[in-house]
């Protein structure tokens, strides 16, 4: 059972760490260890993880097979840090990525290691798109999230985060994401028309950057037809299409790339989060071969050669992506998840299902509800996050390797937490004892 | 002896990796393992590492004590990825950093984990400086290097790298670094005067960002008096002083922070590269307590909680910074290094010594020479890099833990390589057989 | 009959004046004098002026009453140039403007003399809007035209003109003008939604700038309901509404201000072109009293005190705006004009009527037609311009003082020119003799 | 004697005109008429004008010869407003400008009419410089003044005026004007070095824009050798040199162009203020023939064809610039002026002479003094302005046609006013009666 006396154990965080810290405010536990879908705090509490490091832990925590390769590599004094020199670990990753990911999908992307974070990958994509087209503007979508460094922030929607720049943001313009107007208007009417109208005032952009599912922006999922129309529009106007697959990629929505289902081939793809498979910092920028117009060293960065991450990335691709097992599990678990979420939706007027695959959730009309469910779930031993501009969506993002039983266990807690919150919201009494009873089995300690 | 038939083993790099790759072009070996100051290639060659991951490997490769802690943590399923939730590993790091680094130096910085790379830390520093002052402009210095994402790139000097943005760069202005005019003008005349002159056209900046030694810009080292005057100037005008200690910090110049020797206390400090001690991605932004004006989550990033790096960082601080041994070794080895470099300088008219501590090198008048010495050193089993806008400086950056014998061994190769190149440059015959003989001992295979 | 041998008389223009010259390419006459709606070239040709200096000559050329005041003032050594010192001429203008324009309409605008051109007025409006709100972005509309200096150009739609900046343009975003999507979407859906959505990525703007009729952008006229909704939207979100009435104001659409008919009261109004009444450079920026937050001298300019223009401006207000005669004439002539334009529309499939009041025209589906009609009209002694991003609209803009007979005379030529062009376009023979006969009466010389 | 009861006569200014008004605050008279160097207020006061419309009235007020041509043109219904169509008045101006100004100086500039104000001319120069070079940045100098629209403001130094933009200003960087460091540093050390250093962080600019005398920035006058070195530097680096001759040109410093004395030929020249000769709005942008890369209409503006100004401009060139009389008068009067200013300097420790030709003044160490002298001079019937970032310079700028006697009369008042102020500043009694006596003769009314 989670301790409530965190004052002594968290004090250095409060006295020494910046106020910018955030998740720890919702989940004030001090975590020690983790395995699979479970995370453990130092007070002995166990939590089911329906958060997965915001998508960086698609194969769960500390997967044994990946861990084995990682420890073997470290124990054998494999090169840890290599900048962009050649290493055996990098070669194995490149060969595996080619063999397991690119070749079977008929993709011929050039691979860049732009620095080990998602925003490094996005910045790199924006740079190469501008450099290759000679144009400045990049179109992003309402409620997009692409990162916190200056270039990525300019194509990010959230106004609080944008204000953090302390300076105006440049060379980005915003277009409505799929269904932004609830189907009231034809898709891409605005971009199609303004790009064709030399008097529109909208300069033709270098690129469009899009997430197929908006992980931070409220789990809006673009329809396949919308993505195909977007790709066709970009092609007609010679505008590059960048898919930011940092959160939705690496199998999160079923296929390895989240855009496969739609049948499109972006010009540039950003990957990070789960590409290492183990939560280690790593990212890739994939680009059409003719866009690889960099001078040697024109983009660089100290941690481009993080070999332990290459090792786990290679192991993850070999372990999970050489047969169809993981795709089948995602499909089955996504079905199970939707069923569970429908139980919550049934209890709240106006609540709607959001997302795709194992990146799904429930949007509530009352924007306070999702945060309360997050808190109630935490009390009950479940880590689940909110999403959306007002945090109005409960966002569920378990490991892709979660079992049916684990999913059931987590959903049980989530439904219970939601019920408790929705009862309170309705003014009905919160049956606290029931909750406590429900919660007990969720904790090991 | 290094193999020359790299065609088969490096082919996937050539066919699949982006043209942007750079170090591998100068050092076309495929590295497998590393220990201390030695790095090994798959053809059996051994290299002495006078490069140290561009400063990310201050304690050498795979230091046994750090490795032990790292493997123990991983083996015990310690939390790997935690975003900004609380973890035991993070608490231990914060407590250790406070106890070993901050407290003894009387510093009360708030610590932010801004994402695991140097450019994340710089972007964060620029954001908070702009946010807190309400001003946009940031002054950087000639030949500065601060990173490749859009905000950091705007305060970076190199024109080739700047052009990679594909867009104009904003809100930065450039001032002459120490000795840019060879002492011809009083220091800070320009900034002092324009900041005091309401008609100058130079808007008062939010901050000045400075490296105490310009690692990429040619190993120019600022004098202590120059840094003190800069700090005083900033204080007089209420301009924030940011020290980018990504490359020169973590003991590289002797003390933990490179600015300690000058006796200044910056308002914001950027740390990365060797902060993890093991070459793992990690960075910090340290800021004056009153500057910590972030909203929770106003800056974020997936890999802010890279716990394996926290573990090795804590171990590194405990291993190396609780007594004065490493500072003494840096001082002694820096002396030894300077003596070695003087032997090279003696052979080349106009060559000059650059740098400070174990971040030192030789600048040549003929800008081609340094690159040739790098190549000749590589042939002889030594990894040494060039620096400066035209690559005119041979840059030596061994592990801080290097022994006297290892340093001597490396310097012997470097002097030999330089001699061979300078003889060629002089038109005298290159005594090739001698070189081959010299080189042999450097290789294990 | 216009001379075709302009080579000798225009040679200094060709050898000495910049290639940027434009109207002279369509109308290669050398004009000498003008009176009312007639303009005379040095070869003796007479032209009916359906162009009116692009709206700067709303009361025709050299109106006798205004001329009398102007010459009297000059002959009496009235102060010509006064910067922003007080002069009797300026006081008379201010008093008259207050009495004749502001008071009867219940408007309490503060009046700024920002420099004597439309773009000065727009730049001033943008500056004060940004200064008062502390926000940067300004929303303008598709196909807007607001001027050629950097601030105004950023809110102008035409891509060729934007490219002339030679630099990216900042802090402007574009929204669809009324009917941009032919009624397919609800008005202001985009602005309403994104301004209310903190995650949209569209920062709340300082202001919206709008023309009620797009003089350069193709004579699109906004409906009253659209303008009222826009004004209400801005008020709800505390965004300033700027009406650029440089071209459509000063009676061009009937009332003194073009926005009166819609019943809205903008926060800021830009006036220029016909405010002097005589084609002399002059402009005003009108602003809500609480927005007048300038420091003395914070905006300045040499020709803010162009007293001859103040004199003619005062005379024009007294002559034309103290009774309803000019409004009645505009209404009657606009009716007559529409009837004439309908005769052209009847001859061309897909041609549509555009504009409002005496700022009206015909848009053709074939974008080449309007230019050909302009040329044919010039040959026949009529000055009429094209408008729109592809010059696809014949734009008719006679003096507001034009008589019924003069209008009939001009329309006769225009219809004839259009007929000739449309016949040619249809492949039918051009009845040249008839044209010549038609045209003769149009010329005095 | 000036009335002190301005309350009734200036009330509409106070109730209706924007707070931005400025000169009227220092000179609260209501001016009616003017002739030569005298200006008259409605209370009968006469003022000697040592201000000349900030340089727009180089030939004095309402010069009879120019007036004659102007009234004749207006009376004869000459075309007043012509946009950029050909007119006889424009041809005569172009031919005269070529014959009287360009040809005798061996200059082959293309002439653009960019709109009738100085800032229009500067914006045009910046646009064409960026367009032709493909570069963005423009270097301007400390304390420069180039105009108030967004592009010109970005190259203007004054911080109060810059803040009026309400937005950051782009693509400008500042370099020290001649003598900014009192000769302590070699000229152009900074530009020369940074433009040659690819790592400097200063991107090579499109252009440098310079005033030969800083009319608003404190009457600093660049030495000829400095201007020649600047021109040579620009040529070596293929950077365009723009001379903003809006205030210092048209004979103000002796020759027609202020840069002639230095023997340089700028790539682009901005002219305005006195080019019409009569205080009428007009401006020119002169450019090297190969820089005239405009598309027709790529830059435009309503008041480019202000024919009354062309008429007076032609008359001014023919009246004043076909013999050397005016240059001789400027030389003689400048000598007389310097002698007078020396009398003031002699009374104030640290006061220094500033300027060149008839654009000269005195800088005081106590920044309050110049404003007090302006006020005391006004009381005594003399209009004289202040200049400099803190208004620390008394700036004298009489008509170039001023006679020896008129100059003596004005100087007498100025010296008297200065004496009174400096006595007060010294704490000695102000001999008020003497002042009153002195002043009397200055007034006609």
TrEMBL record, chains A, B, C, D:
InterPro entries: Aminotrans_3 (IPR005814), Aminotrans_3_PPA_site (IPR049704), Dat (IPR004637), Ectoine_EctB (IPR012773), PyrdxlP-dep_Trfase (IPR015424), PyrdxlP-dep_Trfase_major (IPR015421), PyrdxlP-dep_Trfase_small (IPR015422). Its EC number is 2.6.1.76. CDD domains: OAT_like. SUPFAM superfamilies: PLP-dependent transferases (SSF53383). PROSITE patterns: AA_TRANSFER_CLASS_3. It is an enzyme of class 2 (transferase). Pathway: Amine and polyamine biosynthesis; ectoine biosynthesis; L-ectoine from L-aspartate 4-semialdehyde: step 1/3. Its cofactor is pyridoxal 5'-phosphate. Keywords: Aminotransferase, Pyridoxal phosphate, Transferase. It comes from the Bacteria. GO terms for molecular function: diaminobutyrate-2-oxoglutarate transaminase activity. Belongs to the class-III pyridoxal-phosphate-dependent aminotransferase family. This is Diaminobutyrate--2-oxoglutarate transaminase. It comes from Luteipulveratus flavus.
